[in-house]
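Appendix B, record 7
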Amino acid sequence: MTDGPVLLLSCEHASNRIPDEYRHLFHGCGSLIASHRGYDPGALACARAIGRRLRAPLIAASCSRLLVDLNRSPGHPALFSALTRTLPRKEKDRVLTRYYHPHRARVERWVEARITAGHRVVHVAVHSFTPVLDGVTRKADIGLLYDPARRVEAALCQRWRAALQESGSGSLTVRRNYPYRGASDGLTRYLRTRFPASRYAGIELEINHGRLRGNADQEQLAATLAATLRQSLRK
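Structure tokens (predicted):
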């Protein structure tokens, strides 16, 4: 990574931990907490493995998205889940202060410091998605999300997709801006408002849960993702 931009990894849905003081709100919700609605299964392990291979820092969430969703903007209807949406305003502010703002601020400060030092930053936010949602099967193994209006992001994702398809892992189906749109609400979208396209590229990496079911699967996929990302950043 001596040539080209510096890389940062983040994982907004890394954990399904419910802090002790809020566990009473989730009584009887063990299955929900353990599901994809509580966190992104496999995302943290994959992000760590990519980070090790590329020697890139990782900033990861420490609480469940069911408490507060770190990948949603203030005021977004999904910022708080159905289980926390009715908390008093004061308590919501406390959750934001303790769990939401620190994570997002860490990411923003890291990016700002590198840009101020004269670097270009590529920020890859690692997520995973359930293979079937509301009865609809998602037809992809990997999704690369970006803002089509930002040419650097679009070009990077085009190169990364091509590298993945040429990597010898031919069974991977890789789609761009799927199963979500990269310009939709999220941390990368917010950071695009803070930093110019010439200095900041925000990509969301979405991985199908089916590709992350075992440690061997996670390690193998992480190795492929890291090698192809390295290749794509050098071009």
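Remarks on this record: The mean pLDDT is 95. The beta strands are 6-11, 58-60, 121-129, 132-133, 136-137, 142-145, 174-176, 200-208.
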